[in-house]
Each structure stands twice: as C-alpha cells, then as structure tokens.
Amino acid sequence: MVKDITFGQYYASKSVLHRLDPRIKLVLCLLMIVFLFVCRSFPALALMVVFTLVAVGFSSVHVKMIAKSIKPVAVILIFTAILNIFYTKGKYENGDSLVFTVLGRFEVWDKGLYTALFTMLRIISLVIISSLLTYTTTPTMLTDGLEKLLSPLKKLHIRVDTLAMMMTLALRFIPTLIEETDRIISAQKSRGADLDSGGLVKRAKALIPVFIPLMVSAFRRAYELAFAMTCRCYTGGDGRTRMKQMKIAPRDIICLVICLLVCGGVIALNIFFKKVI
To answer: Which residues pair with 106 in a beta bridge?
Structure first.
C-alpha cells in the first residue's frame, strides 16, 4: 500500500540520535552508505549490519517504522536475489559447488546464494540508515545542516541556501504526496474504479484518474507554499537568523570516532577474509 511508505517522515523522540548535530548526522549517513558498498566480505558486512542495528536501538524509533521503511523495497530485494541466485556462476577450481539445477537449465551455485544474501543485507542496511536520517532529524534542522555543509560552495556563487531548501522541501513533501495519493485512490475506488485487476497496461491506464488530480494537488501545494514564504518575507541567504544554533557537542565527536573505527574495521576485514563480491 502507498500509505506504508514512510520515507521522509520525522519520528519525534529524545534519543541520542535525535540530539546529534544534523551536520554530523549527514556526514555519518553518507560515510556509512559509502562503506556499505566498500564491504566485500561477510565479516565486513556483518560489522555494518551490527552497527546499523545498534543505531536503530539508540534512535528509539519503533521497529514497525523500520519494517515499513523496508516494505516498499521488498520487490527490489526479491528481484535482486533471484537474479543473483540464477545468474551468478561459480567455478569448481575456486572451491565453489553446484547446489541444484532448476528445469535442467538454471544452475544454482553456492556462490549465487551467498551473493544474493550479501546483496539483500546490503540493500536493507542502506534503506535503514537512510531512513534513520529523516526519522531523527526535523526538516528545519536538515535544511540548516545541508546549508552549513555546502557553505564552501558560496565562493563559487552558488545559492547554497536555495539548494538546501529545495532538497529539504522535496524530502518533506514525500509523505504529504503519499498521503494525498492514498486519499485519491480511496476516493476513486469508492466511486467504483477498478485499479487492481487486469493486465499491466490496463492497470496503468486505470491510474490516469489518480495521477491527474495528484499533479493538480502538487502544483497547488507548491503555489501555496511559495505564496506563504513570500508573505513572510522569506529570502534566505545572508542575514537570516536561526532560532536554534548548531553546536558540535562531545557526543557528536564520540559518534564520529566510533563510525571511523567501524570504517577502519570494514577495511581490515575486507583484507583478511574472502571476498564475496
């Protein structure tokens, strides 16, 4: 269901992650995503998975919210696993073994099973880490953090404040548009519209009465938001004051050091253990 998509939502709490500086959270999120792709062995990936679970524990975000963030990518996970299982071929000289054959044509090797599991764990960890950033950071703090991190680009005459605002507004309106889509679908079904049966082409055509009012609603919301910002004399840029000032606290430094140690552990484990991918 559309309403199960939780990306972009904020989960109010007073956890350790909620109280971290948004600049540190942005840097750590990017760092962890990069090192998820640096992982080449199961021990290295296991270290990242454990770190992700610990981060979830310190975030105080309910497990149901984490599960909802994974649910929309379930189809991608299944599709990726199937491709890796049936199209990753092993070699006997490398110690790989043939597990079984499907229909006499598709060979399933143990390397394919390991690769499928490895890829699925990587994608799930990636989704959870990305979701924790929005779950634990308000849109306002996210905007301020982005603006501060991108401030060196001002020397290139780039409107960093406008860029940060655009990125944050796009992120903020994802849940709003999802709710609007769910309301439109429910309204169309109550009028007798059949959106779930038929082939792919028929279902795509049936969604046209959903997309048209959704686009109209999105443009209306954008116009109302721009009008509201103009009425409040919002200009952004230099001279704009902030109610909450961002300061690096000892807990931010501690979290950064821990993440750097985890990254170092990933590099070391990649060196000492057999690579999967």
So the answer is: 102
In terms of pLDDT, which residue wins out, 274 or 121?
Answer: 121
Per residue, the 3-state secondary structure of the chain, as one string, reads CHHHCCCCCCCCCCCCCCCCCHHHHHHHHHHHHHHHHHCCCHHHHHHHHHHHHHHHHHHCCCHHHHHHHHHHHHHHHHHHHHHHHHHCCCCHHHCCCEEEEECCCEEEEHHHHHHHHHHHHHHHHHHHHHHHHHHCCCHHHHHHHHHHHCHHHHHHCCCHHHHHHHHHHHHHHHHHHHHHHHHHHHHHHHCCCCCCCCCHHHHHHHCHHHHHHHHHHHHHHHHHHHHHHHHCCCCCCCCCCCCCCCCCCHHHHHHHHHHHHHHHHHHHHHHHCCCCC
Q: What is the pTM of this model?
A: 0.78
Under a CB-based contact definition with an 8 Å cutoff, are residues 4 and 72 in contact? Answer: yes
Question: pLDDT digits over 69-109, tens only?
Answer: 888 888 888 888 888 888 777 776 566 677 667 766 777 77
Give residue limits of the domains in the chain. 2-138+248-272, 160-236
